[in-house]
Amino acid sequence: MLNLNILDGPVVLGLYILSALSLFFVLSRRPLRGYLRPAVTGLLGGVLLGTAMKLLLVDGLNLFGGPVSETVTALFIIGCGALGMTLSGLYKSRWPRKAGSLGGALIIALTLTLAINATYGLNPTVAAFLHINTDPAAALVAANPPATSAQTQPPLSSWSPPPDMPAHGTTGQLADANAIPNPASGFPARNAEIYYPPAALVKNPPALPFLLMMMGQPGDPTAKNIAAVLDQIAANHHGLAPIVIVADQLSDPTKDPLCLDTALGKAETYLMKDVTSWARSHLNILPNPAAWTIAGYSNGGQCANYFGAKYPALWGNILDVSGIEYAGAEQSTTVLKQIFAGNQQAYDAVKPAHIMAATRYADSTAIYTAGEKDAALVDVQQRMAHAASSAGITTHYVTIPGADHGVTALDGGLTAGFKLLYPRLGLSTSTP
């Protein structure tokens, strides 16, 4: 049940059919003329209510913490209209019809929820939608001893894989004995996930670049998307790709600790000390900053940009996929008051553009991407690219054609980013 596909397939199709039947049920009353006015009134009332809710909750209060696409807006308003029309069946009806109308409204509400979820495409199963991780625990690949580590190996671009190298990498939770501890931060992170590319799974594997990834909010530290993208690219590059940890910067999908050390938790210390210390001691990775990438999507993109700007001696590369502008940008007035006690100077000090303006970067690369249909973040990412370039960072900005703020932006941004990063990471001599 938890792994049931809720993006497409028979279950979703069945709900669409039941929703259509629910609307037909409302219009099946006889004589129709006497009940048509309540049905139309319910439809129009639902549309007006849906529009008002969008204007208040999304445009006014920004309760969803990020952009909402035109498709989602249209689905929501149409769905509210359908709900209003279905509930009109309660008007001057007997209990059997009232029960049918209420049941139909529940079906339409569920269908609307799944339709909006499918538009974003980030939660393909019931488990993912409920933020339950059903992925298996990862089997760790032993790291090479320090004496034989990456400084002495030949260039990765000249590496030849053995015949028994697997065609695909592996992913899994870092759970139980392999969970990343938090001695420095005490941050209650959920289990991270890891991706080992094919080249990491052979006997005597080469040391590989390292990438730390963070997902959006609400969201989960899943490696599925980045693993699929890297598997495709690695297939054309002798199985080579970074070893990836997808870490949890939230602790809870409903919370946003801002990737800072605050009363909400020491997310920054967890990611910059606990996670990186574990990676150094447990993974067969290259040690130099040019081989280390900090990456993120949406909320995680902001985190990546912040960490890359603040810690250039640790992270030589930034991959910011549809990231928001700075910590708490969606509700900056509330964050300023509650987290920074009204101290605007302190708040400005953690904004990536502010950090970049005060720092010079000797050997850093930054890549910013945004979906073509995500107009607000196209503007944000272009401004961030300008700030990075002005600070001396080698900078790239990519608009992802046809993408919004969902899975199309995530997968497209990762693909575009790695095409630019592969030569920088020594994984190819040209873009994939």
Query: Which superfamily, in CATH terms, is the homologous superfamily of the largest domain?
Result: Alpha/Beta hydrolase fold, catalytic domain
Tell me which oligomeric state these chains represent. single chain
Radius of gyration: 24 Å
What is the number of helices? Answer: 13
- For the termini, the CA-CA separation is 39 Å
Structural class by helix and strand composition: alpha/beta
* Strand-residue proportion: 5-15%
CATH architecture of the largest domain: 3-Layer(aba) Sandwich
Unreliable stretches covering 5 or more consecutive residues = 147-151
How does the major sheet shape up?
8 strands, mixed
> Strands of the biggest beta sheet: in what spatial order?
1-2-4-3-7-8-9-10
What is the ordering of alpha helices and beta strands? Answer: HHHHHEEEHEEEHEHEHHHEHEH
Using DSSP, what is the number of strands?
A: 10
Specify the overall morphology: globular
Question: What is the helical fraction, as a range of percent?
Answer: 40-55%
Q: Supply the number of structural domains.
A: 2
CATH fold-level topology of the largest domain: Rossmann fold
Give the class-level CATH name of the largest domain. Answer: Alpha Beta
**Mean pLDDT over all positions:** 92
Region (Disordered): 145-169
GO molecular function, one term: acyltransferase activity, transferring groups other than amino-acyl groups
InterPro entries: AB_hydrolase_fold, Mycobacterial_A85_antigen
Transmembrane segments: 6-27, 39-57, 72-90, 102-122
